[in-house]
Specification:
The protein is mainly alpha-helical. About 65% of the residues lie in helices and about 0% in strands. It has helices spanning about 5-15, 25-50, 85-100, 125-145, 150-175, 180-215. Helix 3 runs parallel beside helix 5 (about 150-175), helix 4 (about 125-145) runs antiparallel to helix 5 (about 150-175) and helix 5 (about 150-175) packs antiparallel against helix 6 (about 180-215).
């Protein structure tokens, strides 16, 4: 086999590999990621940062030595991570949740399992979608509980969880995106931010009440 033939064989193997990047389009990814994920996340982050400067925005009365010391966060203690660290952690976990659950399927159109692969499959059983939703909720709540600022953490965690999830979606859709799929990224960004935000804010309100009672 000549060197040229060997190179062609290697290229074909890369194209056939389930995690091949040969069809990935950086321009499609940028056209999704920048307007639908990066810009909304940056704007919302500035709003949250500005709101956090108000003394009445955060729970300010903590019991002495109330910050969580161990690895796991505590319901009745604030965490020890900054807003920036919470954003990074939430983004990574959101990306992992999407890639971990949606890069494969237990039931494709032919009824069999498929993946993991990129581009991801397009058909998923209901239980797999439900498991993804539970994973996102658990990740978002746990991440918010690590925050030093309870209220800000409850806003930053869902925002960056949605950003990480939507980024993973953008990667999967960058193998030949359509306008409808691009709208799906935007809807995921909005829906997850709002849906997860409701959960984390409710948890933050309950925790704030507990912390204030401990401070009395």
């Amino acid at each position: 086999m000549s060197l040229k033939d060997a190179a062609c064989v290697r290229a074909q193997k890369r194209r056939d590999h389930p995690m091949s990047w040969s069809g990935f389009s950086p321009s499609h990814f940028a056209s999704l990621e920048i307007p639908l994920v990066v810009v909304p996340t940056a704007v919302a982050s500035l709003v949250i940062w500005g709101m956090g400067r108000s003394p009445s925005f955060e729970v300010s009365e903590w019991p002495d030595g109330s910050v969580s010391r161990g690895f796991w966060p505590r319901w009745d203690r604030p965490g020890k991570l900054s807003r920036f660290q919470i954003g990074v952690l939430a983004f990574v976990l959101g990306f992992i949740a999407c890639a971990g659950w949606l890069s494969w399927t237990a039931e494709d159109k032919g009824g069999g399992a498929q993946g993991p692969s990129y581009p991801p499959p397009g058909n998923f059983p209901a239980w797999q979608i439900a498991a993804l939703g539970v994973t996102l909720i658990v990740f978002a709540v746990l991440t918010s509980m690590y925050a030093r600022r309870v209220t800000s953490g409850a806003l930053i965690s869902p925002l960056f969880s949605a950003a990480g999830f939507s980024t993973a979606m953008s990667v999967g859709l960058s193998y030949g995106v359509t306008s409808q799929e691009g709208i799906g990224v935007g809807l995921s960004m909005i829906g997850l931010t709002v849906g997860l935000g409701i959960v984390t804010l409710v948890c933050a309100a309950l925790r704030a009440g507990k912390l204030k009672r401990l401070a009395q």
